């Protein structure tokens, strides 16, 4: 089986409401969808969600990288040669992990379809029956976040993820404690600072105020490049620390393991350049006795399904946050959210049916590479 044609779509997914995190407010979510065709008639779908704050890529630059470099390079290759494909992309350009993820995911979709198996069976089989997903709350006033959190719990959500990190750290502490008071002590609360507390001193002071609030973990409290600082925060506080933006590569993960800088790691396919390296990172974390999460860059059904296949295949991946499709007012796929779980279809490949009509509707521009 050889790749014969690639179609690249620049898409904007409309959000039901603006998504506010520490470093940006998103009115919609830009993504790159690729469609790979083969000489066997099979078609594979991939997705890349670039973010200049996390992967160092712009929407427009990642489109050009795929158009001019990566997609022309893989024409004529077999999707099964996934390591060779990654090697070729790495030789062409360093970084650009979200663009590489789009290619990687489409190749895995093709591999699964070619052998008639869901992707998780290519990764070691189904290690977990199902994983729930949290209600994600973006940054708002403490009272509003508390009201939304209480409503989410009443709707049946088993856990909450709170986005904080905008403004003063004390404001974030107030947000978190307001939510805890609103939902009681039993609902797991995950806090994602998205680097917003910046320095170890600020982070330690904030976390100390939360040590009695039964917080599951604090995610990426300080700047991504300060792994030693992250280790300092962990050593001086009693709430588990999750590393996210600090892990851009296997080398970063090994440094976090060496310095004991985190309790949990957040693996995102957009950072790991796709499924292939995400699985390797989960295995490395397992060897160090660390648990993992498969996190979200607010992908559609295509990228979210890819993340769930990885999560289902690894015993040390205990949580996911792949809720992008729930935030969109319009989508292209049919990933099956049966609250509070996602149910993978078991169909070959990613198991997601993509609506060509919806893809065309949401596409800003496209190109074909043969």
TrEMBL record:
Which EC class does it fall in? isomerase
Residue intervals of the Mandelate racemase/muconate lactonizing enzyme C-terminal domain: 142-240
Q: What Pfam family is a match, any one?
A: MR_MLE_C
- Presence of the UniProt keyword Isomerase in the record: yes
Query: InterPro entries of this UniProt entry?
Result: Dipeptide_epimerase, Enolase-like_C_sf, Enolase-like_N, Enolase_C-like, Mandelate_racemase_C, Mandelate_racemase_N_dom
> What is the protein's given name?
Dipeptide epimerase
Give the record's family classification.
Belongs to the mandelate racemase/muconate lactonizing enzyme family.
Q: Which GO terms describe its molecular function?
A: magnesium ion binding; racemase and epimerase activity, acting on amino acids and derivatives
Active-site residues, record numbering mapped to chain: 163, 268
One Gene Ontology BP term is: peptide metabolic process
Q: Which domain of life is it from?
A: Bacteria
SMART domains, per this entry? MR_MLE
Q: Which residues bind Mg(2+)?
A: 192, 219, 244
The UniProt record lists the EC number as 5.1.1.-
Going by the UniProt record, its keywords in alphabetical order are: Isomerase, Magnesium, Metal-binding
Q: Which organism is it from?
A: Planococcus antarcticus DSM 14505
Kindly list the cofactors needed: Mg(2+)
Cofactor note (record): Binds 1 Mg(2+) ion per subunit.
Spell out the CDD domains in the cross-references.
L-Ala-DL-Glu_epimerase
Q: Which residues form a coiled coil?
A: none
